[in-house]
Design goal:
The protein has 358 residues and is an alpha+beta fold. Helix content is 21%, strand content 22%. The strands form two sheets. Strands 2-1-5-4-3 form a five-stranded antiparallel β-sheet. Strands 7-6-10-9-8 form a five-stranded antiparallel β-sheet. Strand 8 and strand 9 form a beta hairpin.
Length: 358
Protein backbone atom coordinates (compact mmCIF):
# COMPACT_ATOMS: atom_id res chain seq x y z
CA UNK A 1 0.00 0.00 0.00
CA UNK A 2 2.77 2.42 0.92
CA UNK A 3 4.44 2.31 -2.50
CA UNK A 4 1.20 2.48 -4.40
CA UNK A 5 -0.11 5.68 -2.86
CA UNK A 6 1.98 7.61 -5.37
CA UNK A 7 0.20 5.96 -8.32
CA UNK A 8 -3.08 7.50 -9.50
CA UNK A 9 -6.12 5.29 -8.97
CA UNK A 10 -6.27 2.86 -11.87
CA UNK A 11 -9.80 3.43 -13.10
CA UNK A 12 -9.36 1.60 -16.38
CA UNK A 13 -6.52 -0.85 -15.93
CA UNK A 14 -4.48 -2.51 -13.22
CA UNK A 15 -1.35 -1.72 -11.24
CA UNK A 16 1.79 -3.74 -11.89
CA UNK A 17 5.08 -3.57 -9.97
CA UNK A 18 7.94 -5.50 -11.60
CA UNK A 19 11.42 -5.88 -10.09
CA UNK A 20 14.61 -5.17 -12.05
CA UNK A 21 15.01 -8.88 -12.76
CA UNK A 22 11.48 -9.23 -14.15
CA UNK A 23 9.58 -10.72 -11.21
CA UNK A 24 6.06 -9.46 -10.56
CA UNK A 25 6.32 -7.99 -7.06
CA UNK A 26 2.72 -6.77 -6.98
CA UNK A 27 -0.38 -6.77 -9.16
CA UNK A 28 -3.76 -5.30 -8.24
CA UNK A 29 -6.60 -7.82 -8.19
CA UNK A 30 -8.19 -6.05 -11.18
CA UNK A 31 -5.63 -7.83 -13.41
CA UNK A 32 -8.26 -10.58 -13.52
CA UNK A 33 -10.74 -8.28 -15.30
CA UNK A 34 -8.25 -7.60 -18.09
CA UNK A 35 -6.11 -10.72 -18.47
CA UNK A 36 -8.16 -13.37 -16.65
CA UNK A 37 -5.26 -14.34 -14.37
CA UNK A 38 -5.90 -14.17 -10.65
CA UNK A 39 -3.66 -11.86 -8.65
CA UNK A 40 -2.20 -14.86 -6.81
CA UNK A 41 -1.38 -16.62 -10.12
CA UNK A 42 1.03 -13.90 -11.18
CA UNK A 43 2.63 -12.56 -7.97
CA UNK A 44 6.29 -13.59 -7.69
CA UNK A 45 6.20 -15.09 -11.22
CA UNK A 46 8.35 -13.93 -14.11
CA UNK A 47 6.57 -11.17 -16.02
CA UNK A 48 8.06 -12.60 -19.22
CA UNK A 49 5.79 -15.63 -18.94
CA UNK A 50 2.89 -13.23 -19.56
CA UNK A 51 4.44 -11.23 -22.41
CA UNK A 52 4.39 -11.99 -26.13
CA UNK A 53 7.82 -13.28 -27.14
CA UNK A 54 8.30 -10.45 -29.67
CA UNK A 55 7.63 -7.83 -26.98
CA UNK A 56 9.90 -9.28 -24.29
CA UNK A 57 13.01 -7.30 -25.36
CA UNK A 58 11.00 -4.05 -25.22
CA UNK A 59 9.81 -4.83 -21.70
CA UNK A 60 13.33 -5.79 -20.63
CA UNK A 61 14.66 -2.49 -22.06
CA UNK A 62 12.12 -0.49 -20.06
CA UNK A 63 13.09 -2.20 -16.81
CA UNK A 64 16.63 -0.86 -17.18
CA UNK A 65 17.33 2.65 -15.86
CA UNK A 66 19.17 3.65 -19.05
CA UNK A 67 16.95 1.64 -21.45
CA UNK A 68 20.06 -0.39 -22.17
CA UNK A 69 19.98 -3.71 -20.31
CA UNK A 70 23.04 -5.97 -20.27
CA UNK A 71 22.83 -8.36 -23.23
CA UNK A 72 21.28 -11.74 -22.43
CA UNK A 73 22.42 -14.60 -24.67
CA UNK A 74 19.72 -15.43 -27.23
CA UNK A 75 19.54 -19.08 -26.24
CA UNK A 76 19.09 -18.36 -22.56
CA UNK A 77 15.47 -19.11 -21.63
CA UNK A 78 13.93 -16.04 -20.06
CA UNK A 79 10.92 -17.85 -18.65
CA UNK A 80 12.61 -20.14 -16.12
CA UNK A 81 10.56 -18.62 -13.33
CA UNK A 82 12.93 -15.68 -13.35
CA UNK A 83 15.96 -17.69 -12.23
CA UNK A 84 18.11 -17.05 -15.28
CA UNK A 85 16.95 -13.42 -15.19
CA UNK A 86 18.08 -13.01 -11.62
CA UNK A 87 21.58 -14.15 -12.41
CA UNK A 88 21.89 -11.70 -15.32
CA UNK A 89 20.45 -8.72 -13.43
CA UNK A 90 23.08 -6.12 -12.66
CA UNK A 91 23.06 -4.77 -9.11
CA UNK A 92 23.41 -0.98 -8.98
CA UNK A 93 24.33 1.18 -6.03
CA UNK A 94 22.02 4.21 -5.65
CA UNK A 95 24.88 6.64 -6.40
CA UNK A 96 25.29 5.04 -9.86
CA UNK A 97 21.69 5.93 -10.76
CA UNK A 98 19.84 9.14 -11.66
CA UNK A 99 17.79 10.76 -8.86
CA UNK A 100 14.44 9.06 -8.34
CA UNK A 101 12.40 12.10 -9.38
CA UNK A 102 14.27 12.38 -12.70
CA UNK A 103 12.07 12.42 -15.81
CA UNK A 104 14.68 9.98 -17.12
CA UNK A 105 12.93 7.24 -15.12
CA UNK A 106 9.43 7.82 -16.52
CA UNK A 107 8.09 5.00 -18.66
CA UNK A 108 5.36 4.70 -21.27
CA UNK A 109 5.38 1.75 -23.67
CA UNK A 110 3.16 -0.93 -25.19
CA UNK A 111 3.41 -4.71 -24.79
CA UNK A 112 1.12 -7.61 -25.66
CA UNK A 113 0.17 -9.62 -22.59
CA UNK A 114 -1.28 -13.12 -22.57
CA UNK A 115 -5.01 -12.90 -22.01
CA UNK A 116 -7.36 -15.71 -21.03
CA UNK A 117 -10.41 -13.56 -21.80
CA UNK A 118 -9.61 -12.36 -25.27
CA UNK A 119 -11.09 -14.86 -27.66
CA UNK A 120 -9.21 -13.74 -30.75
CA UNK A 121 -5.44 -13.94 -30.47
CA UNK A 122 -4.90 -14.86 -26.83
CA UNK A 123 -3.03 -11.58 -26.30
CA UNK A 124 -4.12 -8.12 -25.18
CA UNK A 125 -2.06 -5.02 -26.03
CA UNK A 126 -1.49 -2.94 -22.90
CA UNK A 127 -0.05 0.52 -22.50
CA UNK A 128 2.22 0.57 -19.43
CA UNK A 129 2.60 4.01 -17.95
CA UNK A 130 4.56 4.80 -14.82
CA UNK A 131 8.13 5.08 -13.65
CA UNK A 132 11.09 3.26 -12.15
CA UNK A 133 11.24 3.72 -8.38
CA UNK A 134 13.32 2.12 -5.64
CA UNK A 135 11.67 -0.96 -4.23
CA UNK A 136 12.36 -0.92 -0.51
CA UNK A 137 11.94 -3.69 2.03
CA UNK A 138 13.30 -6.43 -0.23
CA UNK A 139 16.15 -7.26 2.17
CA UNK A 140 18.01 -9.14 -0.55
CA UNK A 141 21.53 -10.36 0.10
CA UNK A 142 24.41 -10.72 -2.32
CA UNK A 143 26.50 -13.88 -2.77
CA UNK A 144 28.79 -12.93 0.12
CA UNK A 145 25.84 -12.33 2.45
CA UNK A 146 26.04 -8.52 2.53
CA UNK A 147 22.77 -6.60 2.23
CA UNK A 148 21.98 -5.31 -1.26
CA UNK A 149 20.75 -1.74 -1.78
CA UNK A 150 17.12 -1.35 -2.94
CA UNK A 151 16.89 -1.72 -6.73
CA UNK A 152 14.74 0.18 -9.23
CA UNK A 153 11.44 -1.51 -10.02
CA UNK A 154 8.82 -0.56 -12.58
CA UNK A 155 5.62 0.85 -11.03
CA UNK A 156 3.05 1.11 -13.82
CA UNK A 157 -0.62 1.32 -14.64
CA UNK A 158 -1.49 -1.11 -17.41
CA UNK A 159 -4.36 -0.01 -19.65
CA UNK A 160 -5.77 -1.80 -22.70
CA UNK A 161 -5.21 0.07 -25.98
CA UNK A 162 -8.69 -0.87 -27.18
CA UNK A 163 -11.63 -0.26 -24.89
CA UNK A 164 -13.20 -3.53 -23.72
CA UNK A 165 -16.21 -4.53 -25.79
CA UNK A 166 -19.67 -4.54 -24.20
CA UNK A 167 -19.74 -8.33 -24.52
CA UNK A 168 -16.46 -8.68 -22.62
CA UNK A 169 -17.62 -6.32 -19.91
CA UNK A 170 -20.87 -8.25 -19.59
CA UNK A 171 -19.17 -11.63 -19.22
CA UNK A 172 -15.89 -10.73 -17.52
CA UNK A 173 -17.63 -10.30 -14.18
CA UNK A 174 -18.70 -13.94 -14.15
CA UNK A 175 -15.22 -15.44 -14.42
CA UNK A 176 -15.10 -18.35 -12.01
CA UNK A 177 -12.41 -20.69 -10.76
CA UNK A 178 -12.43 -24.38 -9.93
CA UNK A 179 -9.78 -26.57 -8.33
CA UNK A 180 -9.22 -30.22 -9.33
CA UNK A 181 -7.10 -33.26 -8.57
CA UNK A 182 -4.64 -34.21 -11.31
CA UNK A 183 -7.19 -36.57 -12.92
CA UNK A 184 -9.59 -33.59 -12.97
CA UNK A 185 -11.78 -34.70 -10.06
CA UNK A 186 -13.37 -31.48 -8.74
CA UNK A 187 -12.12 -30.35 -5.31
CA UNK A 188 -13.48 -26.81 -5.00
CA UNK A 189 -15.48 -24.15 -6.82
CA UNK A 190 -15.73 -20.44 -6.03
CA UNK A 191 -18.95 -18.51 -5.37
CA UNK A 192 -19.37 -17.30 -8.97
CA UNK A 193 -18.94 -20.86 -10.27
CA UNK A 194 -21.75 -22.03 -8.00
CA UNK A 195 -23.97 -19.30 -9.46
CA UNK A 196 -23.09 -20.11 -13.10
CA UNK A 197 -23.35 -23.90 -12.75
CA UNK A 198 -25.94 -24.16 -9.98
CA UNK A 199 -24.17 -26.92 -8.03
CA UNK A 200 -22.91 -26.91 -4.47
CA UNK A 201 -19.29 -27.87 -3.91
CA UNK A 202 -20.42 -31.21 -2.45
CA UNK A 203 -22.43 -32.02 -5.60
CA UNK A 204 -19.38 -31.35 -7.77
CA UNK A 205 -17.14 -33.50 -5.58
CA UNK A 206 -19.25 -36.64 -5.40
CA UNK A 207 -19.44 -37.35 -9.10
CA UNK A 208 -16.03 -38.75 -10.03
CA UNK A 209 -13.44 -37.30 -12.39
CA UNK A 210 -15.45 -34.29 -13.49
CA UNK A 211 -15.69 -35.45 -17.09
CA UNK A 212 -19.35 -36.29 -16.27
CA UNK A 213 -20.05 -32.56 -16.49
CA UNK A 214 -18.54 -32.25 -20.00
CA UNK A 215 -20.51 -32.67 -23.24
CA UNK A 216 -19.70 -36.00 -24.95
CA UNK A 217 -18.66 -34.19 -28.14
CA UNK A 218 -16.12 -32.15 -26.14
CA UNK A 219 -14.56 -34.88 -23.99
CA UNK A 220 -11.73 -35.91 -26.33
CA UNK A 221 -10.85 -32.30 -27.05
CA UNK A 222 -10.79 -31.52 -23.30
CA UNK A 223 -8.79 -34.69 -22.60
CA UNK A 224 -6.24 -33.68 -25.22
CA UNK A 225 -5.75 -30.30 -23.55
CA UNK A 226 -5.62 -32.05 -20.15
CA UNK A 227 -2.72 -34.17 -21.47
CA UNK A 228 -1.04 -31.03 -22.82
CA UNK A 229 -1.39 -29.42 -19.39
CA UNK A 230 0.14 -32.46 -17.66
CA UNK A 231 3.14 -32.14 -20.01
CA UNK A 232 3.59 -28.37 -20.18
CA UNK A 233 1.86 -27.05 -17.06
CA UNK A 234 -0.91 -25.24 -18.94
CA UNK A 235 -3.83 -26.38 -21.12
CA UNK A 236 -4.12 -23.31 -23.29
CA UNK A 237 -7.56 -21.86 -24.10
CA UNK A 238 -10.16 -24.62 -24.12
CA UNK A 239 -13.78 -23.96 -25.10
CA UNK A 240 -16.37 -26.59 -24.16
CA UNK A 241 -19.86 -27.19 -22.75
CA UNK A 242 -20.53 -27.85 -19.08
CA UNK A 243 -23.72 -29.41 -17.75
CA UNK A 244 -25.50 -27.12 -15.30
CA UNK A 245 -27.70 -28.23 -12.43
CA UNK A 246 -30.73 -27.34 -14.60
CA UNK A 247 -29.57 -29.91 -17.20
CA UNK A 248 -28.61 -27.19 -19.68
CA UNK A 249 -25.28 -26.96 -21.50
CA UNK A 250 -23.26 -23.84 -20.76
CA UNK A 251 -20.33 -22.86 -23.01
CA UNK A 252 -17.21 -21.79 -21.14
CA UNK A 253 -13.76 -20.69 -22.19
CA UNK A 254 -11.20 -22.08 -19.78
CA UNK A 255 -7.51 -22.26 -19.10
CA UNK A 256 -6.19 -24.96 -16.76
CA UNK A 257 -2.86 -24.68 -14.96
CA UNK A 258 -0.86 -27.10 -12.86
CA UNK A 259 0.02 -25.87 -9.39
CA UNK A 260 3.26 -27.32 -8.06
CA UNK A 261 4.35 -27.97 -4.52
CA UNK A 262 8.01 -28.81 -3.84
CA UNK A 263 8.56 -29.23 -7.57
CA UNK A 264 5.78 -31.81 -7.99
CA UNK A 265 2.38 -31.16 -9.57
CA UNK A 266 -0.18 -31.08 -6.76
CA UNK A 267 -3.50 -29.92 -8.20
CA UNK A 268 -5.09 -28.10 -11.15
CA UNK A 269 -6.65 -24.63 -11.10
CA UNK A 270 -9.05 -23.74 -13.92
CA UNK A 271 -10.11 -20.17 -14.71
CA UNK A 272 -13.39 -20.25 -16.66
CA UNK A 273 -15.40 -17.58 -18.43
CA UNK A 274 -18.99 -18.23 -19.56
CA UNK A 275 -19.55 -17.59 -23.29
CA UNK A 276 -22.77 -16.86 -25.12
CA UNK A 277 -23.95 -19.71 -27.37
CA UNK A 278 -22.92 -17.90 -30.58
CA UNK A 279 -19.33 -17.69 -29.35
CA UNK A 280 -19.36 -21.36 -28.38
CA UNK A 281 -20.72 -22.37 -31.78
CA UNK A 282 -18.03 -20.30 -33.49
CA UNK A 283 -15.29 -22.15 -31.54
CA UNK A 284 -16.89 -25.49 -32.38
CA UNK A 285 -16.75 -24.66 -36.10
CA UNK A 286 -13.07 -23.70 -35.80
CA UNK A 287 -12.34 -26.86 -33.85
CA UNK A 288 -13.99 -29.18 -36.37
CA UNK A 289 -11.54 -27.84 -38.95
CA UNK A 290 -8.73 -29.39 -36.87
CA UNK A 291 -10.05 -32.95 -36.87
CA UNK A 292 -9.07 -35.74 -36.57
CA UNK A 293 -7.81 -35.73 -33.00
CA UNK A 294 -4.18 -36.53 -32.41
CA UNK A 295 -5.13 -38.28 -29.17
CA UNK A 296 -2.62 -41.13 -29.00
CA UNK A 297 -3.80 -44.41 -27.52
CA UNK A 298 -0.84 -44.50 -25.15
CA UNK A 299 -2.11 -41.35 -23.50
CA UNK A 300 -5.41 -43.09 -22.84
CA UNK A 301 -3.53 -44.67 -19.93
CA UNK A 302 -3.87 -41.33 -18.17
CA UNK A 303 -7.61 -41.92 -18.24
CA UNK A 304 -7.28 -45.66 -17.47
CA UNK A 305 -9.44 -46.41 -20.46
CA UNK A 306 -9.39 -49.97 -21.68
CA UNK A 307 -11.13 -48.84 -24.89
CA UNK A 308 -9.38 -47.64 -28.01
CA UNK A 309 -10.70 -44.12 -27.57
CA UNK A 310 -10.72 -43.29 -31.25
CA UNK A 311 -13.44 -45.90 -31.75
CA UNK A 312 -15.54 -44.18 -29.06
CA UNK A 313 -18.53 -46.55 -29.20
CA UNK A 314 -22.04 -45.20 -28.68
CA UNK A 315 -22.07 -44.83 -24.89
CA UNK A 316 -25.76 -45.63 -24.64
CA UNK A 317 -25.79 -48.94 -26.49
CA UNK A 318 -23.86 -51.45 -24.47
CA UNK A 319 -24.30 -54.59 -26.53
CA UNK A 320 -22.55 -56.83 -24.02
CA UNK A 321 -19.46 -57.07 -26.24
CA UNK A 322 -17.48 -55.15 -23.68
CA UNK A 323 -16.80 -58.00 -21.28
CA UNK A 324 -13.39 -58.70 -22.86
CA UNK A 325 -12.04 -55.30 -21.82
CA UNK A 326 -9.62 -55.44 -18.93
CA UNK A 327 -11.18 -54.53 -15.61
CA UNK A 328 -9.04 -51.78 -14.15
CA UNK A 329 -9.12 -51.31 -10.42
CA UNK A 330 -11.43 -48.50 -9.49
CA UNK A 331 -10.00 -45.88 -7.19
CA UNK A 332 -13.39 -45.16 -5.65
CA UNK A 333 -13.50 -48.52 -3.90
CA UNK A 334 -17.00 -49.85 -4.22
CA UNK A 335 -18.06 -48.38 -7.55
CA UNK A 336 -19.45 -50.84 -10.06
CA UNK A 337 -17.65 -51.84 -13.24
CA UNK A 338 -20.74 -51.77 -15.43
CA UNK A 339 -19.90 -53.70 -18.63
CA UNK A 340 -16.25 -53.62 -17.59
CA UNK A 341 -16.09 -49.87 -18.21
CA UNK A 342 -13.99 -48.10 -15.63
CA UNK A 343 -16.25 -45.30 -14.30
CA UNK A 344 -13.24 -43.00 -14.11
CA UNK A 345 -12.43 -43.41 -17.81
CA UNK A 346 -13.71 -40.92 -20.36
CA UNK A 347 -16.25 -43.40 -21.65
CA UNK A 348 -17.34 -44.29 -18.13
CA UNK A 349 -17.86 -40.61 -17.40
CA UNK A 350 -20.07 -40.15 -20.46
CA UNK A 351 -22.05 -43.29 -19.66
CA UNK A 352 -22.89 -41.89 -16.23
CA UNK A 353 -24.66 -38.94 -17.85
CA UNK A 354 -28.40 -38.96 -18.23
CA UNK A 355 -29.35 -39.71 -21.85
CA UNK A 356 -32.00 -36.99 -21.63
CA UNK A 357 -29.48 -34.13 -21.54
CA UNK A 358 -28.76 -34.78 -25.23
Amino acid sequence: GMYLSSLPQALNGFVLVVTSEGLIFYSSHTIQDYLGFHQTDVMHQSVFELIHIEDQPEFRRNLHWALNPPHTPEDEPSTEGGKSLGSSAVIYKPDQLPPENSSFLERSFVCRFRCLLDNSSGFLALNLQGRLKFLHGQNKRSEDGSALPPQLALFAISTPLQPLSILQIRTKNMIFRTKHKLDFTPLACDAKGKIVLGYTEAELQMCGTGYQFIHAADTLYCAENHVRMMKTGESGLTVFRLLTKENCWKWVQANARLVYKNGKPEYIVVTQRPLVDEEGGEHLRKRSMHLPFTFATGEALLYQSAYPLLGFPDPFQSKGKTSKSKKTSCSHGGCSQKNGVDPSSLLGAVMQQDKAVY
